[in-house]
Amino acid sequence: MSQPLLTLDFLDTPAAPAAADHQPAQDVRVSPATRTGRQRKLYIESYGCQMNFSDSEIVSSILFEEGFDTTEQLADADLVLLNTCSIREKAEQTVRMRLSQINSHKKRNPGLLVGVLGCMAERLKSKFLEEEKLVDLVVGPDAYRDLPNLIREVDGGQKAVNVLLSRDETYADITPVRLNSNGITAFVSIMRGCDNMCSFCVVPFTRGRERSRDAHSIVQECRDLVAQGYKEVTLLGQNVDSYKWTSEDGQEFVNFAQLLERVALISPELRVRFSTSHPKDITDEVLYTMGKYENICKYIHLPAQSGNSRVLKLMNRTYDRPWYEERVQAIRRILGDDCAISTDMISGFCSETEEEHLETLSLIDFVQYDMGYNFFYSERPGTLAARKLADDVPLEVKKRRLQEVIDRQQLHARARYARMVGRVHRVLVEGRSKRSEEQLSGRNSQNQVVIFPKGTAQKGDYVNVLVTSTTGAALLGEIV
Ligand code: SAH
Ligand code: SF4
Ligand code: F3S
């Protein structure tokens, strides 16, 4: 089949700001229904990052044991839970608006219980419970095991709160109810919390200290997924490269590279992804491990946040630009040019000058990212930056710089897609394409979306696809 290497779409369509699974997305996920005849119905909406989506699966598992099925219909629910995100002000506003909608629904259905979970829980517990009287239940990310007790309290007519953070909770023994899944790809949390204290970031406050989950329980969960027909796992943590676990008797130590290897060895048919990598922690050992196993996907989310060393210092990222560039060169050296790299950038951080912003653009040119998740700075109460630095870049300037970052990033994303045209890619089929019933959609190792006529292939198959064109946000081709 002859097709132009680049279709016109490539020129016309803006590259979609695809919300990657690990990424704080503006969107919300409603957990789908489980119908097992449980007495009560739980409706759960999740905001923010993949950690939250993954936690909602743990919550559903805990509440399933307590007699709750999930429902996709708010109208059918006995219990409504919002799993919330605090990362930027806008994320919190979205949840607040949603809560007031749910509250008017509750006025018509007085028996309905409403709870707030996740990252807003700690910060806003008193506001939710006392001032606004919006919710019955507030539960922080480390207290989900307490949900059955808390719900009993609420059933007894009280309000209930538990926002205690833990130093060791990893929910290692809880098998998540796979709500967010297509039956092919699954997310596996390998650690919780974060100790990094980036000055802009609320996560260390909302999710507490960093702790790594028992390596054996991670490997077992992945094995179970393979036995159920899953073909891809994404190992999740705020900072996966600082994963470290020691057995209780002190005899066994596992770092991230070793964990990655153990998971990769479960089956060559199981793809392994991970997110997020902190540039200060990603080691050559991890890169060599990625190179050694075909089934470890060649894609690294390596958020830079800024291209300027002074700003990085103010952000407390603990690396500077030369360090970051060296890590990118190590990726290119060890894994080659095909390894995809993505970033998060923050525009308009405290005192960022125009020249410093231009350095972010030049870093984007240096790395030629495959994808970028870019934001303008949003001050978060309680963070180091909020306490010590002035949020002094005007909003219009933040937004203009952000647009320049997005535009620059899209140029490179399109070029990275374009260079894949004319090559054969191994694609894991994830399901039907949104465009058409006749097309399937999957991803290549680099995490790029590939769309092709279905032929005889099915969800869960690996197929070789010759890519013949790109839209700039997806690759189009045919099975060979
Ligand atoms: N642990 C990951 C980031 C998790 S938060 C890491 O260290 O890379 C996801 C992204 O949200 C961050 O990478 C950052 O770009 C963005 N972010 C976090 N706090 C923010 C804030 N206050 N304003 C704007 N963006 C923010
Ligand atoms: Fe936030 Fe930094 Fe931790 Fe990422 S590494 S979650 S940006 S504090
Ligand atoms: Fe994730 Fe948002 Fe919390 S990005 S860790 S849900 S603040």
UniProtKB/TrEMBL annotation:
<keyword id="KW-0411">Iron-sulfur</keyword>
<comment type="subunit">
    <text>Monomer.</text>
</comment>
<keyword id="KW-0004">4Fe-4S</keyword>
<feature type="binding site">
    <location>
        <position position="49"/>
    </location>
    <ligand>
        <name>[4Fe-4S] cluster 1</name>
    </ligand>
</feature>
<feature type="domain" description="MTTase N-terminal">
    <location>
        <begin position="40"/>
        <end position="156"/>
    </location>
</feature>
<dbReference type="InterPro" id="IPR058240">
    <property type="entry name" value="rSAM_sf"/>
</dbReference>
<feature type="binding site">
    <location>
        <position position="201"/>
    </location>
    <ligand>
        <name>[4Fe-4S] cluster 2</name>
    </ligand>
</feature>
<keyword id="KW-0479">Metal-binding</keyword>
<dbReference type="InterPro" id="IPR005839">
    <property type="entry name" value="Methylthiotransferase"/>
</dbReference>
<dbReference type="InterPro" id="IPR006638">
    <property type="entry name" value="Elp3/MiaA/NifB-like_rSAM"/>
</dbReference>
<protein>
    <recommendedName>
        <fullName>tRNA-2-methylthio-N(6)-dimethylallyladenosine synthase</fullName>
        <ecNumber>2.8.4.3</ecNumber>
    </recommendedName>
</protein>
<feature type="domain" description="TRAM">
    <location>
        <begin position="418"/>
        <end position="480"/>
    </location>
</feature>
<comment type="function">
    <text>Catalyzes the methylthiolation of N6-(dimethylallyl)adenosine (i(6)A), leading to the formation of 2-methylthio-N6-(dimethylallyl)adenosine (ms(2)i(6)A) at position 37 in tRNAs that read codons beginning with uridine.</text>
</comment>
<feature type="binding site">
    <location>
        <position position="119"/>
    </location>
    <ligand>
        <name>[4Fe-4S] cluster 1</name>
    </ligand>
</feature>
<keyword id="KW-0408">Iron</keyword>
<keyword id="KW-0819">tRNA processing</keyword>
<keyword id="KW-0949">S-adenosyl-L-methionine</keyword>
<feature type="domain" description="Radical SAM core">
    <location>
        <begin position="180"/>
        <end position="416"/>
    </location>
</feature>
<dbReference type="InterPro" id="IPR013848">
    <property type="entry name" value="Methylthiotransferase_N"/>
</dbReference>
<dbReference type="InterPro" id="IPR007197">
    <property type="entry name" value="rSAM"/>
</dbReference>
<dbReference type="InterPro" id="IPR038135">
    <property type="entry name" value="Methylthiotransferase_N_sf"/>
</dbReference>
<dbReference type="Pfam" id="PF01938">
    <property type="entry name" value="TRAM"/>
</dbReference>
<comment type="similarity">
    <text>Belongs to the methylthiotransferase family. MiaB subfamily.</text>
</comment>
<dbReference type="GO" id="GO:0046872">
    <property type="term" value="F:metal ion binding"/>
</dbReference>
<dbReference type="InterPro" id="IPR023404">
    <property type="entry name" value="rSAM_horseshoe"/>
</dbReference>
<feature type="binding site">
    <location>
        <position position="85"/>
    </location>
    <ligand>
        <name>[4Fe-4S] cluster 1</name>
    </ligand>
</feature>
<dbReference type="GO" id="GO:0051539">
    <property type="term" value="F:4 iron, 4 sulfur cluster binding"/>
</dbReference>
<feature type="binding site">
    <location>
        <position position="198"/>
    </location>
    <ligand>
        <name>[4Fe-4S] cluster 2</name>
    </ligand>
</feature>
<dbReference type="Pfam" id="PF04055">
    <property type="entry name" value="Radical_SAM"/>
</dbReference>
<keyword id="KW-0963">Cytoplasm</keyword>
<dbReference type="InterPro" id="IPR006463">
    <property type="entry name" value="MiaB_methiolase"/>
</dbReference>
<keyword id="KW-0808">Transferase</keyword>
<dbReference type="GO" id="GO:0035597">
    <property type="term" value="F:tRNA-2-methylthio-N(6)-dimethylallyladenosine(37) synthase activity"/>
</dbReference>
<dbReference type="GO" id="GO:0005829">
    <property type="term" value="C:cytosol"/>
</dbReference>
<dbReference type="InterPro" id="IPR002792">
    <property type="entry name" value="TRAM_dom"/>
</dbReference>
<feature type="binding site">
    <location>
        <position position="194"/>
    </location>
    <ligand>
        <name>[4Fe-4S] cluster 2</name>
    </ligand>
</feature>
<dbReference type="Pfam" id="PF00919">
    <property type="entry name" value="UPF0004"/>
</dbReference>
<dbReference type="InterPro" id="IPR020612">
    <property type="entry name" value="Methylthiotransferase_CS"/>
</dbReference>
